[in-house]
Amino acid sequence: MMENILWNTWQYLVDVFDCFLILYLFRKMMRTRLRQPKYYYLFLPVLAAVLFACNCWLSGMIGLGVMTCVYAAFSLLLFRGTVMMRLFWPAFCSVLFFSIDFIYSSALLMFFPTIDPYTYFSEQSAFFMVNTLATRLLIATAVVLVTRKAFRLTLSWRNWMLSVFIPAVSGVIMLLLEPNFMVPGVNDGLFLLVAVLLFLVNILCLWQTVSISRYTAMAARQEAELKLKGLEDTQYQNLLDTHKTLMGWRHDFFNHLSVIGQMIQTGRGDEALDYIEALRNKTNESSTMVNSGNLAVDSILNAKLPAARENGIRVSLRLEVPKMKTDPVDLCTLLGNLWDNAFEANMYLENHSERFIRLTVRPSDFFCSIHMENPVAPGREEQAESHESTKHLPGHGLGVGQIKKTVQKYDGVYSLRLAQPGRFVVDLLLPIDAAAPVEQVFVWESAKEALV
């Protein structure tokens, strides 16, 4: 009775595991919406049935099974990143799974000719369970390899190693126990219990890997939202500070006019001009407001400029921002990460005269070109070329990845390079309409401001 319960549990776990793998691959595949999904769902089962039939027909020989595996893997590689991959991915992955199953079974029967095929493939036998467990572990490994890009972006190396280590150890355990259970009718119940427990552990391991990956992705999104909220709070505080400054100027306005009028009345015109020039310079230095006509660009730069000025970083801006297709939040993400990386690189230069940030935004044919330059401290050229962050803290080191991800989202082009010793250059191209207008040109060099 107990053995039947264990056997039914085993079959249920295998079915659940297979469904989980297939549904997980389908979920990864269906990230892009299809215009007419009903035709897709009608077409896919027919294609899958044909491929399964061909695979079963050719699986009598190991060589043909290997060729089927190579064909499925090559097809997945060929269609990577295209709509065709999303159409054929489940079919080719299913063929890959069946091929792994047949190759393993054929190889085992070939290298162990004393095994009776009927006994091997019959239900409620240790032979059948070894085959099932081994093939499912291989299939799970194939799934992890197919989806490794998504896991690599969201899993730490410790969690990644754990997701690989547990299936590998389970396979070794089965190989060590196999000689003790390969005699039909001997210790089948004990072997069944071990197999069920190992299989359950591997299901939980895969489920934990997917859950951790999903949780990490959600945490990254929440962190980005908090960062954006912090940016909005900073911008709001900047507006309040500007308002207070303007109110202070209003209070002092009449005093300045009285002083200037007194100088003119007493014939000290040169002193009055010097006084006016000093007031103008003080105003420019304390109230530089970026006004390019693009709210996202203006907001992020107005929030970042005060810190650059306080740390002695010379800033050169030339902004000819066209009307863009890029979402303002994504544009803030791009410029914010670019500026933070440049600011961080400048802070490693002890000589303030060597600190600078040069930013140019302008239209270029069908693209908006974003060009940024900043210095690189001696001894940090290798780190700049590898695009690694110097901050080993939670939430840091994701700037370059966010830049690349955002540019790719809009089918843009990016280039991050060490153009010459001591200078790092970033060039981004984001698609725009050919006739996208430029509302105004904003040019600002260090403490001198001009609006063209």
TrEMBL record:
Asked if the record carries the keyword Transport, the reply is no
Q: Which residues form the SpoOB alpha-helical domain?
A: 235-290
Pfam families recorded for this chain? HATPase_c_5, SPOB_a
Keyword Transferase annotated: yes
Keywords attached to this entry: Kinase, Phosphoprotein, Transferase
InterPro entries assigned: HATPase_C_sf, NatK-like_C, Sig_transdc_His_kin_SpoOB, SPOB_a
Sensor histidine kinase NatK-like C-terminal domain: which residues? 328-431
Record GO terms (molecular function): identical protein binding; phosphorelay sensor kinase activity
Gene3D superfamilies with a match to the protein in the record: 1.10.287.130, Histidine kinase-like ATPase, C-terminal domain
Q: What is this protein called?
A: GHKL domain-containing protein
